[in-house]
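Hi support team,

I submitted a single chain yesterday and got back a structure, but I'm not sure I'm reading the token output correctly. Could someone confirm the output below corresponds to the sequence I sent? I've pasted both exactly as they appear in my results page.

Thanks,
R.
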Amino acid sequence: MGREQNDSVFIFDEPTIGLHPLDVRKLLEVFRRLISSGATVIVIEHDLDVICNANWIIDMGPEGGEAGGRIAASGTPSEVKANPDSITGKFI
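Hi R., thanks for writing in. Yes, this is the structure output for that exact sequence:
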């Protein structure tokens, strides 16, 4: 964590599962530190606190399984919120 991460990509799959909201805040700070060090951070997540703090969202849907698998919306949290095709955007 204390070195440059310019060539690093970190992928987190649902890292907030089971975390207390205060721990989610700590996790968001870890993400910020990684990004500040030059890393790329990709997070697969359903937690709205994490989603709202993202630089860029890719909202897959509109549902799961055979009813999903396409990009319903993408962009900044504000752009996804304004997109009528985004179910996630309705909750941001």
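A quick pointer for reading it: The mean pLDDT is 94. Let us know if anything else looks off.

Best,
Support desk
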